[in-house]
Amino acid sequence: MHDDIERILLTEHELRVRVVHLAAEIAAVYAHDEPTLVAVLKGSVVFVADLIRCLPIPLRLAFVWAESYRQGTRAGRLELSGLPPEEDLRGRRVLLIDDILDSGRTLSAIRAELGSRGAREVRTCVLLDKPVRRAVELEADHVGFRVEDLFVVGYGLDFAGRYRNLPYVGALKPRVFASASGMERAP
Ligand code: 5GP
Ligand code: MG
Q: What per-residue confidence (pLDDT) applies to 71?
């Protein structure tokens, strides 16, 4: 697996340090309220697991499924499922968490859904941000790192279902994209 990585963009250490700082930023925002963290599956799972263990505040955790990358690195139609029910959202402050903000379509669609289910406020937090790729108007309230316009994997992010378990964020070698047709994408 490590052989498929062309270069490491963010090391384990850099990720750990930044997550601690992000958690401090977030804890200050919710000093007086118990937020509901809504994490987007599957990509944000590693990030949110690390983040919540650095948050010394009462919180609730929920998940939503979003599937947008149907074929390799190309975005397909966005499908949302498993959104928290209205009774879990009504009147609550929500922090929506994703691995990466790219076109912005995923977070903007989920944010609208959470709002229409009665959330009092929806803030957003992403580990990575690719601002040059934005197609809808959306800036995250908390951003771990801004990254260049490159397809990245690791620390939760996949390519064709693989590489989520890499402990760092890296860029794939071009030959991996070329041989992707033989790989299965996890559901
Ligand atoms: P958006 O809706 O903002 O275009 O896309 C967000 C989703 O696209 C992310 O949750 C992630 O699943 C996927 N995505 C965007 N850029 C990358 C990338 O560089 N690497 C990987 N693995 N996924 C990406
Ligand atoms: Mg995702």
A: 58
User: CA 98, CA 47: separation in Å to the nearest integer?
Assistant: 8
Confidence band for 67, pLDDT divided at 50, 70 and 90: confident
CATH (domain of 89): 3.40.50.2020
Phi and psi, residue 112, nearest 5°: -60, -40
Whole-prediction pTM: 0.93
* Spacing, Cα 29 to ligand 2 middle (Å): 25
Domain that holds residue 68: 12-148
Is 173 among the domain residues? no
Q: Quick check: is 92 in a domain? A: yes
C-alpha 173: how far from chain center: 23
Residue 153 lies in a domain: no
Phi, psi of 45 (to 5 degrees): -65, -40
Cβ(19) to ligand 1 under 6 A? no
**Domains held by the chain: number:** 1
Residues tagged active-site: 102
- pLDDT tens sequence across 146-181: 999 999 999 999 999 999 999 999 999 999 999 876
Determine, yes or no, domain membership for 180. Answer: no
